[in-house]
Each structure stands twice: as C-alpha cells, then as structure tokens.
C-alpha cells in the first residue's frame, strides 16, 4: 500500500511538472511552435515591438509596431516541428 502511494505521488508530480513547463514555454503549443517563438520570429523579421500574438488556423498572427510607427500584422506559420 505504501509503495502504491509513493508511485502515485511520483506520477502526479511528473505530470504536474510537464503542465507547468508547457505553460512557461508560451502556452498554446501548436505543433512545436509556441507564442513566444512566433513573437520572436516576427520581431526579427520587422525589427519592431510585438503588440499581440493570437492563434490562427495555420500558426499565429502577430501584431507588431514597426520603427516607422506602423502597426503590421505578420502571419508566422506553424512549421510542424
């Protein structure tokens, strides 16, 4: 009985750790592409400041404020990694 309790505790903590790590890594993990990765890709592409990241059917839509003061929407496709 004691071994079963310890085993259940270990399994529960392992699963909880995976959930916490998934949330820390950007939340909505869509086939390997996270919100954080999409934001970084859009920022590198435009050199601007990321305003928002929203899930789209094919990846993420990222709104960016460019250095010229324009707000652009960049679609970052899910690469399926």
Automatic annotation (TrEMBL):
Biased composition (Low complexity): 34-49
Stretches for region Disordered: 24-50
Superkingdom of source: Bacteria
Name of the protein in question: PepSY domain-containing protein
Organism of derivation: Thioalkalicoccus limnaeus
């Amino acid at each position: 009985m004691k071994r079963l309790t310890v085993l259940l505790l270990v399994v529960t903590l392992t699963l909880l750790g995976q959930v916490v790590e998934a949330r820390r890594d950007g939340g909505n993990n869509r086939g390997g592409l996270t919100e954080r990765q999409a934001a970084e890709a859009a920022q590198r592409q435009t050199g601007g400041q990321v305003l928002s990241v929203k899930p789209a059917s094919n990846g993420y839509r990222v709104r960016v404020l460019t250095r010229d003061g324009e707000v652009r929407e960049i679609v970052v496709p899910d690469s399926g990694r």
